[in-house]
Write a structure and sequence with these properties.
This protein has helices at about 15-20, 40, 60-75, 80-90, 95-105, 105-115, 120-130, 160-170, 205-215, and strands at about 130-135, 135-140, 150-155, 180-185, 190. The radius of gyration is 17 Å and the shape is globular. A five-stranded antiparallel β-sheet has the order 2-1-3-5-4, covered by helices on one side. The chain starts with 14 loop residues before the first helix and ends with a helix. It contains nine helices and five strands. The chain folds into three domains: about 10-55, Ribosomal Protein S4 Delta 41, Chain A, domain 1; about 60-105 and about 200-215, Orthogonal Bundle (Ribosomal Protein S4 Delta 41, Chain A, domain 1); about 105-195, Structural Genomics Hypothetical 15.5 Kd Protein In mrcA-pckA Intergenic Region, Chain A (Roll), CATH 3.10.290. Strand 1 (about 130-135) and strand 2 (about 135-140) form a beta hairpin. It is an alpha+beta fold.
Amino acid sequence: MKGEKVKMARYKDEQCRICRREGQKLFLKGSRCYTDKCSISRRNYAPGQNGQKKKKLSEYGTQLREKQKTKSFYGVSEKQFRKYFDMASNTKGKTGEVLLQILESRLDNVVYRLGYGSSRAQARMLIVHGAFEVNGHKVDIPSYLVKAGDVIAVREIRKDNGAIKLNVEENGARPVPEWLEKNVETLSGKVVRLASREDVDIPVEEHLIVELYSK
């Protein structure tokens, strides 16, 4: 299924503050997250004057934080996230796991997973600027949902893009998930199959999101 061009609401503050609020790395700033410059490594407490005070969340608060964290991780808006949840609810399988599979299938996530974007945010920007194609056709919609068998590639006219070249060099050692295949020589990748729950490495308890939307 293809995604839609959506004007997404953006968090205006530093991305590092999102990770500090969640108390864990969400890898929103690419290679910086793997260095000592990462805010979680230096200040592993919530931002703000009372950030170092531990606050006990209610059941609802815990569920809400899990949803917000997952939205931030994949960089989607509330409207998009709700649409994906409804899609997952109407699909055979465990709703939470199907939701994660849909989020992993977004083109911006796939470009990031293949190492052609240093972060999902940069991958979105590169896609919008027409740097990628799917099965030989230009796709400039970050929310486009890939299918098993799809081939994602850097367009021929974009192969000299400095950011993509740098990402290939810096992200060469980053492991590619088993559901994807990467070909550095052709700057492409293939969706071998859709992601399963075991393939999703994000620190999320998806059942809390299901419980939240089930209220």
